[in-house]
Predict the 3D structure of the following.
Amino acid sequence: MTNTPSPEERVWAVISHLSTLAFGMGLLLSVIGWSEQRRKSKYAAFQCLQALGYQTLGYTVWLLSYLVLMVVFFCLILTVSVVSDNGDPAGYAWMGGGMGIVLGILMLGGFGLYFLLPVIAAVSCAFGRDFRYPVMGNRLARYLGYDPASAADEPAGLIEEHEDRWVSAMGHVSVILPLWGLLAPLTAWILQGKRSLFLKFQSVQTVAYQVLATVLYFGSGVVSMFGFFGFTVAMGLGVGLNNNSVIVLIGAIVLIISGLLAMLIGLIMPLLHILGQWAGYRVLKGDDYHYPVVGKFVERWTSKNTISVTEEKPV
């Protein structure tokens, strides 16, 4: 960089990167940092937006990689168990144990790498360097129009439309983070909703969508617990009434129905996550994305709210 970032710029950059260690809760600090620095410092705004992207896209890639590893591991274990029926069971048991150790090392290594990069980024920014995450960093810089060589000559900021689209898209993608994913769109709505109607609409509909996804996520657990609790109570009453089979049967039916409902909700959740990722992709591609059903209701609400605010302004 031709100019050295000020202490304030470095502090926001460091905090934004280190907020990744909060595992979801750090989304709040990244959006706040961007909102605070977006017209003061290109350097700090870019680092905050980069940290926001790493916490959403990075977590998505990290989670999907773990799922792939788990599927491969179980396929290998299944293959070993089938082959061991016709071979040396002890040898295949050692092989299965070795694969488990390798899987554990890969999972711990991926976990450590995910948290190591933000620490490196924070240290780099503390010394005033222009840190870029692998793969994402340079692409995001081009998308936002960030050139550190001209940061001092053009202090107005990054490309505003692309900033709003990036923050909106990361809000959509953060649906994969249960509960904490709400922090990104909610903070963007509160801090920048009045400035940008596009960001406001995208953030509001994302909040509504993620609230629905969060209710379903925790609802599946509540349904499962209700079924287990009902079955336990029925078993206790059945024993108290000299093994009343009718009560026990009712408890078993409640347990089965609640289990099926929880399973159904569990199958819906990945679809909601995929739709959130798709929404983020469409927003980055330049679309004014609307979620099915939710988008229409939010659009009506934001339109009415905008009209009422405009009417209240003094002439």
About this structure: Residues 197-240 form the longest helix (44 residues).
